[in-house]
Predict the structure.
Amino acid sequence: MIPNQTGITSEDGRRSALLKAGALQNAILTSANFSIIATDEKGIIQLFNVGAERMLGYRADEVVNRVRPSDMHDPEEVRARARWLSEQLDTPIAPGFEALAFKASRGMEDIYELTYICKDGSRFPAIVSITALRDDHGDLIGYLLIGTDNSVRKRVELQLNEAVAAAEKANRAKTDFISSMSHELRTPLNAILGFAQLVESGTPVPTPTQKRGIDQILKAGWYLLDLINEILDLALIESGTLSLSGEPVALTEVLQECRAMVESQAQQRGIGMVFARLEAPRFVKADRTRLKQVLINLLFNAIKYNQPGGHVTVACTLSTPDTIRISVRDTGAGLAPAQLAQLFQPFNRLGQESGGEEGTGIGLVVTQRLVHLMGGEIGVDSTPGVGSVFWVEMALTAAPQPLASGPQSLDPPRAETPAGTLQHTLLYVEDNPANLELVEQIVARRPDLRLLGAADASLGIEFARVYQPEVILMDINLPGISGIEAMKILRSDPSTAHIPIIALSANAVPRDIQRGMEAGFFDYITKPIKVVQLMEALDRAMASARTDPCPAAHEEPA
């Protein structure tokens, strides 16, 4: 035999390779980390390595030529696998090793989870791979099962699931708390703002000194309401419970509505506004209400932090063929790089705390979260002394398909009361005396309306049946029967089923409003009450009310 350059003959190399391969095979078979089980073609165990002995507690001589691997598996899992195979193949498969090795016997490696039962009766989850073994002629000679203990992963999965469940429970508790807090804050604020609005527009006209005091009350009250709304929005977003719709929204319409809402404030501050026209109709996929909230917040900030005599410019440009950028440019003081880095932090007003402009430091955070939830992007470019450009990018979408029927007005015209007609009877079910008195004073300004009050749902249901009001105002959180339950009772009674019922509640969480509308309320008004909004809702309800079937039942309660 001819030696190679290193002095080692080819025979020596072959012998070394065989020894190395044998060492590797021995290391695999004696591994304590994996159970290696080999069976004959009938499924009887022929090889049971050290790892299998360690995991299952049997000695090799106790199982070789004696049992099948399925005898050490959870029998219910074996039966379940046989049932599954029977359904898939539409043919009976007997429980046992044949069912476990079915895929392997057809030339496919099968990996699945199962539960091993040890000699001492204990159990543990495992992941097992089954491979068919064949001779040189392709004939089946047995099966190879390689398994590993899956207990750690299962334990981690269980802990993770428990952590997720705990987080979801905490989020629900957080949302419930925020909802409750919002309700409790809105209830007294309803009286403050409601009566202040009445005094402001009442007779005699307030003196200049009184008018300044009322203006301060209203300004502080509406600011507090904005703060409550922003905190509520942020809490719902952070807890993942804020639901948004994704629909085609016409940018031109939304921008026109936003301009109408902010233009008066801009005029008061001497700020000019320029809204660039879109060269073609554009629709974005968004939640219409939340998109308006985003744009109005950016517009209000551009007006509030602008310089006297400055201007705000709104432009829409295509970033990509499928994306549009809405930019709001101001001529304010601009932001330094250090301020930009802190821009979207909650309760951070970037040093404006001592300035003359009110703010919470929450609005931009909520705006950013809403944009991201709608699949968009938000950013800012700013130069100190020149101004800032806040921009939002949204995905474009196709225009909505027109309805088959012609367009219909969503808001019926206000009901005009001809002279000499009977008053319209309203019923207000409310347990808070201050809220009841507020609505009484609001309604008293309309000679065509009269109000009946009920302090709880049971009395309200009786009043509705006896006096047949044209519209019912219903609080939600009532003692005993809730407003929603009372509304369902009235809906199920033929004598009151036709009466429009308006929810008037401090429950202002979006899911509460949605739940109320789905339950069947004609409208849902949140407290604090805006007088104009309430009267418009009453007019719509009266315009849609059915003709009173019991005209004689209009008597004042004793």
